[in-house]
């Protein structure tokens, strides 16, 4: 585990207040169009693989810029963008999630690392997942009030859990060999973890407290997964032609 307090030189704040591009009305046919947008500070070739997450109040939008190795924050009300440089060179962040504590968690794909940004103190902490074949794919937050982070480790065919307060990492082997787990989601109604096994057209479920897996073989390839507040599991098929709910 590495903890670093980022100096002022590494935190780039756009104090000139980026002027948003606005606005277009929503037409009568209810098609959604852009009403406001903000240009990112980095050039386009440094913004590859950008992902976003929002604070629960919606007042802050966090995003990643993979090629420039940064985590950014947009405050729409003030049109201000702040960026933090990740300490590990060429970490290549690819996934980001906002935690109820106000912290921001992200994956560094090139270094098999989970990072945590504490915006109030400009502190970034990193945990490297020790595996010769690790390829972290996605992360999911545990119960509200808990700091546990679940992750899918595609190349090692495992589902993992990081407990930041104890630095403890637990990993479970997915029963289907070479299943390439991805798109992990946490079910807050049960404490179970759902994920896609992209190489086997399967949706899997891990019950962390019992270490039991359940797998559902599908007739099509799922590519995106979500669990709603009632515990219902939905997925999108590969062709993007339908959304399916599992009952």
From TrEMBL:
- A Pfam family in this protein? Vgb_lyase
Q: Which SUPFAM superfamilies match?
A: NHL repeat (SSF101898)
InterPro entries registered for this protein in UniProt: Vgb, WD40/YVTN_repeat-like_dom_sf
Please give the name of this protein.
Answer: Virginiamycin B lyase
């Amino acid at each position: 585990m590495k903890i670093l307090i980022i100096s002022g030189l590494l935190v780039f704040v756009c104090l000139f207040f980026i002027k948003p591009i606005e606005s277009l009305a929503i037409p009568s046919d209810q098609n959604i169009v852009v009403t406001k947008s903000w240009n990112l500070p980095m050039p386009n070739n440094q913004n590859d693989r950008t992902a976003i997450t929002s604070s629960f109040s919606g007042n802050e939008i966090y995003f990643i810029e993979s090629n420039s190795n940064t985590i950014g924050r947009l405050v729409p009300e003030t049109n201000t963008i702040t960026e933090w440089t990740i300490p590990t060179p060429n970490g290549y962040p690819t996934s980001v999630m906002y935690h109820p504590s106000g912290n921001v968690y992200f994956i560094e794909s090139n270094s098999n690392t989970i990072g945590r940004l504490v915006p109030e103190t400009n502190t970034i902490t990193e945990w490297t997942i020790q595996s010769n074949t690790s390829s972290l794919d996605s992360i999911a937050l545990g119960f509200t009030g808990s700091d546990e982070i679940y992750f899918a480790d595609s190349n090692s065919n495992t589902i993992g859990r990081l407990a930041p307060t104890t630095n403890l990492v637990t990993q479970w082997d997915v029963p289907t060999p070479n299943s390439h787990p991805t798109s992990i989601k946490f079910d807050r109604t049960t404490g179970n973890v759902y994920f896609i096994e992209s190489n086997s057209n399967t949706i899997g479920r891990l019950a962390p407290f019992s270490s039991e897996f359940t797998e559902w073989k599908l007739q099509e390839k799922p590519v995106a997964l979500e669990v709603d507040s009632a515990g219902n599991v939905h997925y999108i098929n590969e062709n993007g032609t339908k959304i399916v709910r599992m009952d």
